[in-house]
Amino acid sequence: MLFNSIDFAIFLPIIFILYCFIANKNIKLQNFLIVASYLFYGWWDWRFLSLIAFITIVNYSIGPRKSGDIKQIYVNGNLVDTKLGWEPIESLEQAMKSDWDWQKKQITKY
Hints:
Elements: H1 6-23, H2 29-44, H3 49-62, H4 78-84, H5 92-109
Helix pairs in contact: 1-2
């Protein structure tokens, strides 16, 4: 399966929909993406799956989480309000729309 094939045009939306469905469940998304990757590359040429499996095992065994890495991060905007006296002018949706509009203008410049 190549990126410019009809097979990929069918494969990607199916995987995307399944990913969104699984994201709402209590299933590890990383495992789903690994299986989807194996399916994608196996569709192209199954003989390389053993090489990809070997590389996956090596990466997971050699590259553990670093000691300073954090597992999750949370943001609390109350500290900004109490310490700095700053209050946002726009909502998150307005800020995202403004950023997206700016990004669209930048794309047309190149």
